[in-house]
Amino acid sequence: MKSYHILSRTVLALTLVLALAAPAAAGGTFTLSSPQLKNGGTMGLDQVFNAFGCTGKNISPELVWSNPPAGTKSFALTIYDPDAPTGSGWWHWVVSDIPASARSLSLDASARKALPAGSVESLTDFGTPGYGGACPPPGDKPHRYIITLYALSVDHLGITPQTLPAMAGFSRYGKVLGTASLEVTYSR
User: Fold this and answer.
1) 179, 172 Cβ separation under 8 angstroms
2) Which residue among 22, 84, 90, 107 is least packed, with the fewest CB closer than 10 Å?
């Protein structure tokens, strides 16, 4: 009888664990990846800026994501360098209102104007909307470039091409259901 109770409790505990784990496994983890940028790797010259002494190609990377949180109504994307010698970092790309149905941004989507319909590129710290690649000061330590995709609870943030990066961040506040990110470095 004692072994029956132990077996019953074990089966009950296992059933409970599986029942609780099933919803999480079904949705999976919200992830972001790029064929050009490997998490923890170094940025190649294709994604480096082509001005300020940098000689890259300034091509926005292809980005692919999966398993957004339930209730996602749109996405926003940022590329940010917290190591820029400005006191506030440097915003390299700010995109809002990416439709919830999107699961990728194509290679060079910024320059080709090939973002998903309805997406809005707003101002970066280069002073213009659109992708601006890495360009740290020569001889500086490797800078980190944090690419973050935000799953949002709203369809639109009210962002325009002239919205400042800080205001875009403020507009996302309280609407983020989840984030997926990757980080690369670059120095020259």
Assistant:
1) no
2) 22
Instruction: Name residue 105's beta-bridge partners.
Output: 63
Residue 7 DSSP SS3? helix
- Residue 27 confidence class, pLDDT cut points 50, 70, 90: low
Residue 55 in tokens? 């000689």
Segment 112-142, tens digit of pLDDT: 999 999 999 999 999 999 999 999 999 999 9
How long, in residues, is the chain?
A: 188
**Residue of 143, 180, 181, 185 lying closest to 40 (CA atoms):** 185
Adjacent-strand bridge partners of 181: 148
Q: Name the residue type at position 27.
A: G
State how far the Cα of 182 lies from the Cα of 33, in Å rounded to an integer. Answer: 7
Query: Strands, E, within the chain: which ranges?
Result: 31-33, 63-66, 74-81, 90-99, 104-105, 120-121, 143-152, 176-186
Residue ranges covered by each domain of the chain: 27-186
Distance CA 131, CA 78 (A): 10
Q: Could you tell me which CATH number the domain at 27-186 has?
A: 3.90.280.10
